[in-house]
Structures are given as structure tokens and as C-alpha cells.
């Protein structure tokens, strides 16, 4: 059995090397992303381990089939950039890592909200200007607020528990309600009902064609004045242009964004010596009521270790037994 891992970051390499040594499996590691220009590196291997936000399209799956590749095991949860129809057509098994550390993302989302509530960006600017006055940046307490959680999968449920620990009222919405949460009366009657009630809206839903721009001009208008938005899920859930307008008008009081609609050319790249030619991103970056982070909510030692090991285990399991628990269907 031979595996090749594409797009391996330095922080992942050690975990991959330990896994290969422990399992006595030949593993090739490359920093290159998986593209039509790099897939030739996979010739002679049985499976591909990958992590990237750029698409896995039919051309790639066609090439995989020609090379005898049997599995694409991705080191993340989201599969919205994978052409699953093409994968099936070319007999390529696709697996993901359904849960690598829900706590990492849930904890980060709460941390970012707390910074919004306590006006941390504004106070940081005042400190740089030697302005040590309190007013007018008075805060709200989390326990006095209603938090609306959209998406009650593993991450959303952990976030709900944390918010409840702070004493906040928690309501939720999910297209596929969890029986135990429904029984506890935690679901709003509808998404519009959640918009009307929530002081904070935090997104923990996957990206689909149906929920693209879930938050937009019309939905912002249904929310409470000064609502706070937290997005550690997917950038496409929010219409960025509409969000900027809502931030300017005060309809949205602040936003903590760990994902961005057009993040691929920006996040996880060193752009310190170039100008970012994205006017929407630059406008967000200049807003004092916006906290931007480069898709790092997941980025803990525990999560990275789990992402690598589960992806490699999935490939090994499938190539050994012909079946795998983490198959994406």
C-alpha cells in the first residue's frame, strides 16, 4: 500500500511521519496542492490524502482513475469543493474527517464573540492612540443575551453548551433537528423566528447550494437592531456586500468572521509585501466593529493531529477492507 499526501503543511508533517512509521506504510509527502499540474506525482500510489479549498473537479478524478488511484481521503469536514458525482463516475472513494475537534471551533467562536461584546478592537485602537477613556465603548454581558445557533451538528452543539454555561439564552435552527434538542424546546419555530429573537447569530452550518447567502440584505432586515454575527463555518453563508451595508447602517452591530466569501486567494498566504486587490475584504479589514481571522478556528494541535490521523486511517481501512466508516455519501 502506498499513499501520497498533498498540501501538507509543516505542522502536519510530524503527525504524518509518525503514522507512517507506526503502520509501516509507504507515505509520500508534498506541499503541492492537488491540481491537474501536480496529479502526476500520484502515479504509482493507491490513495491520495489531501486538504485544500480549491476544487477537486472531474478532470482530477478522471486522472485518478487512469492512474489506478482508489481513494481520495480529505483531511477536513467540508466537501462543498468536491465533485462527488464525478468521483462516483470514476470509481473513486471519497472520505472526510467528520469531527476532528468540535471544541476547537466552538471555543473560538465564543472567544471572538466575547471580543465583540467587550469592544476589544475599539479599545485596542484607543490604546494605540494613548486614549484610555472608557466611554462611549460600554459593553453588554453575554448572560443577558439570546444566542441563535444556526446548525446543530457536533460543533453547534458544543457551542450551545458553552453559551449556556455563560448563562445566555440559547435557541437554534437546523433543517434536520436533533430529537434531544427538539425535546428540550431549544429550536426556534423557523429561521425567521430565530432572526427576530437573537441578539447574537452564530453560524455552524455546512455550505450548500441551498444556503448560499443565507444572511443577506433581506434577512438582516428581519434581525434585531445591533445584532452580532459570528461565522466560523463557511464564507458563502453570508453575502459580504450586504453585510458591509448592514454594518454601516447599524443594523448589524458587529461581526466576527473566521471565514470570508472570497478567501481562497488571501487566507493562509503571506501577502505582507503585496496589495490585496479585494475592495470588500479591505473594507471589512478597516472596520472597527469587525474581527477578521484567516480561517483558524480549527487550528489547534489536537485538531491537526486528528485530521491527519483520521484521514490516513480512512485510506488504510478502505484499501485493506474495501469499506470505510468515513465515506462521503
TrEMBL record:
- UniProt entry keywords in alphabetical sequence: NAD, Oxidoreductase
**What is a single molecular function from GO for this protein?**
NAD binding
Q: Looking at the keywords, is Zinc present? A: no
Name the Pfam families on file.
2-Hacid_dh (PF00389), 2-Hacid_dh_C (PF02826)
Reported EC number(s) for this entry are: 1.1.1.28
GO-annotated biological processes: L-serine biosynthetic process
Residue span(s) of domain D-isomer specific 2-hydroxyacid dehydrogenase catalytic: 13-328
Span of domain D-isomer specific 2-hydroxyacid dehydrogenase NAD-binding: 111-297
Keyword NAD recorded: yes
Q: Which domain of life is it from?
A: Bacteria
Similarity comment text for this entry:
Belongs to the D-isomer specific 2-hydroxyacid dehydrogenase family.
What the entry lists under NCBIfam families is as follows: PRK08605.1
Q: Which protein are we looking at? A: D-lactate dehydrogenase
Species, as recorded? Dellaglioa algida
Amino acid at each position: 500500500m502506498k499513499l501520497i499526501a498533498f498540501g501538507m503543511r509543516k505542522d502536519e508533517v510530524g503527525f504524518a511521519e509518525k503514522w507512517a512509521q507506526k503502520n509501516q506504510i509507504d507515505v509520500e509527502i508534498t506541499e503541492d496542492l492537488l491540481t491537474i499540474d501536480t496529479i502526476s506525482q500520484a502515479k504509482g500510489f493507491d490513495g491520495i490524502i489531501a486538504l485544500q479549498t480549491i476544487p477537486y473537479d472531474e478532470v482530477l478524478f478522471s486522472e485518478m482513475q487512469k492512474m489506478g488511484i482508489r481513494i481520495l481521503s480529505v483531511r477536513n469536514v467540508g466537501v462543498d469543493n468536491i465533485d462527488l458525482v464525478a468521483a462516483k463516475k470514476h470509481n473513486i472513494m471519497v472520505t472526510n474527517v467528520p469531527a476532528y475537534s468540535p471544541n476547537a471551533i466552538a471555543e473560538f467562536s465564543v472567544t471572538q464573540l466575547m471580543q465583540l461584546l467587550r469592544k476589544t478592537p475599539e479599545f485596542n485602537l484607543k490604546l494605540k492612540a494613548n486614549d484610555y477613556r472608557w466611554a462611549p465603548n460600554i459593553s453588554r454581558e453575554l448572560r443577558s443575551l439570546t444566542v441563535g445557533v444556526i446548525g446543530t451538528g457536533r460543533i453547534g452543539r458544543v457551542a450551545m453548551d458553552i453559551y449556556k454555561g455563560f448563562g445566555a439564552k440559547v435557541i437554534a435552527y437546523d433543517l434536520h433537528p436533533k430529537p434531544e434538542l427538539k425535546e428540550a424546546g431549544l429550536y426556534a419555530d423557523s429561521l425567521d423566528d430565530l432572526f427576530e429573537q437573537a441578539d447574537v447569530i452564530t453560524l455552524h452550518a455546512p455550505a450548500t447550494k441551498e444556503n448560499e447567502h443565507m444572511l443577506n440584505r433581506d434577512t438582516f432586515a428581519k434581525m434585531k437592531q445591533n445584532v452580532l454575527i459570528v461565522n466560523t463555518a463557511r464564507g458563502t453563508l453570508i453575502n459580504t456586500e450586504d453585510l458591509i451595508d448592514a454594518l454601516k447602517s447599524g443594523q448589524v452591530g458587529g461581526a466576527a468572521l473566521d471565514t470570508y466569501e472570497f478567501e481562497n486567494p488571501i487566507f493562509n498566504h503571506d501577502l505582507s509585501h503585496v496589495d490585496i486587490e479585494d475592495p470588500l475584504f479591505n473594507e471589512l479589514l478597516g472596520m472597527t466593529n469587525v474581527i477578521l481571522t484567516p480561517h483558524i478556528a480549527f487550528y489547534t494541535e489536537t485538531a491537526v493531529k486528528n485530521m491527519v490521523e483520521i484521514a490516513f486511517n480512512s485510506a488504510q481501512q478502505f484499501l485493506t477492507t474495501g469499506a470505510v466508516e468515513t465515506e462521503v455519501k
